[in-house]
Amino acid sequence: MTKLQFIGQRSAKPNFSCRDYASGEKLSDLIHKIGHDIGNPLTSIISLGSLLQRICSESQSSSQNEMFNNDKLSLYLDSMVKEAWRIGSINERMVILLSNRPNNQELAPVARICERAIQKLQNTDEFENINVDFELSSEELSIQIDPAQFQVLISELLRNAYEWSKDLESESSISVVAFTDKEGKTNIEINNEFDANLPKDLESLFLPFEKGSSSSKNIGLGLTVAWAIVERAGGSVEISERAIAAKRIFTTRIAVPSKLVEIDLSSNQNIKKDDDSQIPQETSVLIIEDESTVATAIARILSVTLGKQSSLETKIVSGKEALELFKNNKYFDAILCDLNLADINGMEIYQYLQKESPDVVQRLAFVTGDQNTPEIQHFLKSSGCPYLHKPFETEDLLEIVTKLVLHSSQSRARKL
Length: 416
Fold this sequence. Notes:
Elements: E1 9-12, H1 24-57, H2 62-67, H3 70-98, E2 106-109, H4 110-122, E3 131-136, E4 142-145, H5 147-165, E5 173-180, E6 185-193, H6 222-232, E7 236-244, E8 247-257, E9 282-288, H7 292-305, E10 311-317, H8 319-327, E11 334-338, H9 346-356, H10 358-361, E12 364-368, H11 374-383, E13 387-389, H12 394-415
Helix pairs in contact: 1-3, 3-6, 4-5, 5-6, 8-9
């Protein structure tokens, strides 16, 4: 690739509000483009699913057996999972960009969330060999923002940095620097070396579907979504391009109101895990969920993971069935409860347990597909219970259930 001859430095900030895309012609254009981008992974999932259905339903010839070997089956399923996550990511970005609901503003720990975002990306195949340097001016540094959206923000900016630097012939690293400026705002800088011909007007990179690299697989919403999150938090975003010796560096800097406070780094996962603790030999998990596919998936995931460490019993029930079990003092080491149930919602179950069996609340976690409503935000924060937001990753599910089970085991041991 031929380098653009550039000497010095230039920078840009977004010259529009993301609220402009919530109505009118801009919204219509956005919906059509998003529909197209969702259509691609959906086509992949449907095609691969149809192929697997056909292989399973038809008589198995030798050639079909060859197609259906374990290696290829694993490859098909892996592709379907990746495409499903791709759809989930696009949906999440759309909600962030277009939602008019008030954010769940709170003091979010910068260190914990940045490190979690970096670790999650490095656990994926494409980021496995990417070096990310993280420099923090203070371990107590925090940021006044929605914690879930803050992690999305960091992930989007890291993905952008990776896409813009991956074509370099030499190895390069991505640096993340967090500090407090003179105005008392938390600044986070993400720097990467790059070798792409950026547009003359850098401001255009903030627009939906604009890409910094023609080879990028991203759909071009990263900076738009980042700006939407920061704008709602009352902050600012600036991108810059500069030449340092023979290198060209691209920097994205966000600045958001912050405070230096003592922070509970366990966040909403308020159950501490003892590193020396072991999963008990017998474990029981109650799944309160009326979506059978979701409930079955959770049960199977736990079976092939925790089930290898313990004799595991999982029970799937509705909200009303769960209340009957609680009334009869049925014990479970961990309880996963969907908030939006058809017969009785998770908040009502929580209220019942708080009144009748407060000790059970210590073994309770919630699952929700909508944490953006003020009512749910307030409830999740005030309950003190850990929670998962759909769609969730297997590692997050296992982390919460493991902590609940260990807490249950430790509580029982103290009573003996």
